[in-house]
Write a structure and sequence with these properties.
The chain has about 325 residues and is an alpha/beta fold. Helix content is about 50%, strand content about 10%. Helix 11 links the parallel strand 6 and strand 7. Helix 2 runs antiparallel to helix 3 and helix 5 runs antiparallel to helix 12. The longest helix is centred in the C-terminal third of the chain and has 18 residues.
Length: about 325
């Protein structure tokens, strides 16, 4: 074997991705296999296939489109599970290809400010840590701002990531004003010639209005230091919440002007199709997906890999 190192890395990510999406692809695959065995394709089977796709949270528009594509030229013929999987992968890739975009860090803005938003438990702080590790490995000077001042655990977690990635962390006391902290962090990042500033934010949804007001205030205050900031607003979504992710995108997009998505915990759910429904409805760029807790389990999003993994094509 004369594998190059990048190929090995790619392979291990592919293994993690297919492994992570196994719950989604198995539930889809086994349900489809049960349907197509010993039956010829008819209207009833297409409706059953559409139901299977809906249960994987692919969304009504995409599920209808895939079942229609399965039916083309195949009526009254026997059809294999692999044929259905191929159609699923092809149609899902069509939806995902336009949104699979890398996070581009502009060189003209210094520091490049990334505001990270999302509900508590979505994996926001861990995602910031993993991004800090990636950006540092690329040779960028990174600073972290512990803007989730509501939770002491989030502040501590960010400090640990700061130590791991050798990135300075700007933090205040629990309960301190998050907008002031963001202001101080951006000022310090400017003075310290930092390349990228990652700002954590609170994610409690008990009182949506209060949370959203706080986010609006952070954005306003950042603009006082740099009128073009924040340069990216990443919404971190937990795949296990399924359909609830759609309303989270709406709420955060309205308030903070989300520019891109990060989907975490795809390995913890059979509803990985929610990413497809999000792409279909909101058309927002998907920059990264996460399939585990490890530092390398956050990777740039690629439409073809995801489409094949979700369809269960090995």
């Amino acid at each position: 074997m004369n594998d190059t190192i990048p190929e090995k890395t790619k392979l291990s990510w592919w293994q993690r991705l297919t492994g992570g999406l196994k719950r989604t692809s198995s539930s889809l695959g086994s349900a489809v296999a049960d349907l197509v065995t010993k039956r010829k394709l008819d209207r009833a089977m297409l409706e059953d296939i559409e139901d299977v796709l809906l249960r994987a949270d692919l969304g009504t528009e995409v599920a209808a489109r895939i079942s229609a594509a399965v039916g083309v030229g195949r009526y009254d013929k026997t059809i294999t599970a692999d044929e259905v999987k191929t159609v699923v992968a092809t149609e899902v890739e069509k939806v995902l290809a336009p949104v699979a975009k890398p996070l581009v860090i502009g060189d003209t803005q210094k520091p490049f400010v990334i505001l990270v938003v999302g509900v508590n438990g979505s994996g926001k702080t861990t995602t910031i840590g993993k991004l800090a590790a990636k950006l540092s490995a690329e040779g960028r000077k990174v600073m972290l701002a512990a803007g989730d001042t509501f939770r002491a655990a989030a502040i501590e977690q960010l400090k640990i990531w700061g130590e791991r990635t050798k990135s300075p962390v700007i933090a205040g006391a629990q309960g301190s004003d998050s907008a002031s902290l963001a202001f101080n962090a951006l000022s310090a990042a400017r003075d310290g010639k930092i390349d990228v500033l990652l700002v954590d934010t609170a994610g409690r949804l008990q009182n949506k209005a209060e949370l959203m007001n706080e986010l609006e205030k952070i954005v306003r205050v950042l603009k006082k230091v740099d009128a073009s900031a924040p340069h990216a607003v990443l919404l971190v979504l937990d795949a296990t919440v399924g359909q609830n992710a759609l309303s989270q995108v709406e709420a955060f997009h309205r308030t903070a002007g989300v520019t891109g998505l990060v989907m975490t915990k795809l390995d913890g759910t059979a509803r990985g199709g929610i990413l497809v429904a999000l792409a279909e409805r909101h058309k927002l760029p998907v920059h990264f997906i996460g399939v585990g807790e490890g530092i390398d389990d956050l990777a740039p999003f690629t439409a073809r890999d995801f489409a094949q993994a979700i369809a269960g094509i090995e």
